[in-house]
Write a structure and sequence with these properties.
Largest sheet: 10 strands, antiparallel
Shape: globular
Helix content: under 10%
Number of helices: 1
Strand content: over 45%
Radius of gyration: 23 Å
Structural class: mainly beta
Number of strands: 22
Oligomer: single chain
Distance between the termini: 24 Å
């Protein structure tokens, strides 16, 4: 039987297992169809994104594994599932070495089928992408020393770049970064400690030690293409810059 991880816990922590046969849902491209009068073939308008993937997992719980009564286990499971809000990291044993971002859209009633057997069905909505654990490892950059990052996943990734501010500098301009043939300017405003340029979320935010944050600008990093990518800092006034490749697959 298979296992899943959600809201900071593995299902097995509650004596639970997935009892479905292995399932591999397929992400669908988001597009609209446009009907042109007099033309038989509909026109497709691609929205340049993928829809969320809806999926469900049937779960069985065995209270005796955790030395709990059925009532105690039900209470623990309810607390686990109702304490989460918004997207959480989701993993399962169908996709070793990868994770996705999902939210719990519905939980069916927990049924006590036997004194030692409880079942339910969890309904999720997730990102279209699975992200590799390897792709989350930051790569430190040094000025004028190019690095090569190889994308094996078969789909472009949207990197995440961290800029640590050197507060001895008066300028907000921290560095110039070239990804393949495209150069971008990296900034971190004064009075902030670091900035995150997130290609995935399409956000560029600076953060201070006291918890305040501010929007930097509308710059976005180029995608890391399938195959080899060459990354180079061509100028650097920062206190350190790193890039997370964020490799992903459908």
């Amino acid at each position: 039987m298979n296992n899943l991880y959600f809201n900071n816990h593995w299902l097995s922590n509650f004596g639970g297992r997935i009892i479905d046969l292995p399932q591999y849902e397929i992400a669908q491209r988001d597009f609209n169809t446009v009907v042109v009068p007099g033309r038989d073939l509909e026109t497709l308008q691609d929205n340049n994104r993928y829809n969320n993937v809806e999926f469900k997992r049937k779960i069985a719980f065995l209270p005796y594994i955790n030395d709990l009564t059925a009532r105690q286990l039900v209470n623990s499971v309810i607390k686990w599932l109702t304490s989460c809000h918004g997207y959480k990291i989701y993993r399962d044993t169908y996709n070793i070495g990868y994770f996705t971002k999902a939210y719990l859209s519905k939980t069916e009633s927990i049924v006590r089928e036997l004194p030692t057997l409880l079942t339910t069905t969890l309904n999720f909505s997730r990102s279209a992408f699975w992200y590799s654990d390897v792709g989350q490892i930051p790569k430190d950059l040094t000025v004028h020393i190019p690095i090569k990052l190889y994308n094996h996943e078969g789909i472009p990734s949207k990197p995440i770049i961290r800029i640590n501010r050197d507060n001895t500098q008066n300028s907000d301009l921290a560095a110039k970064l070239k990804i393949n043939d495209i150069e971008i300017n990296l900034h971190c405003p004064r009075n902030y400690d670091y900035a995150i340029l997130n290609g995935e979320n399409m956000q560029y935010i600076a953060y201070a030690a006291d918890g305040t944050k501010t929007f930097v600008n509308d710059v976005l990093p180029p995608d890391l293409q399938i195959g080899e990518n060459i990354i180079e800092l061509t100028a650097d006034r920062s206190n350190g810059i790193s890039i997370i490749p964020n490799w992903r697959r459908l």
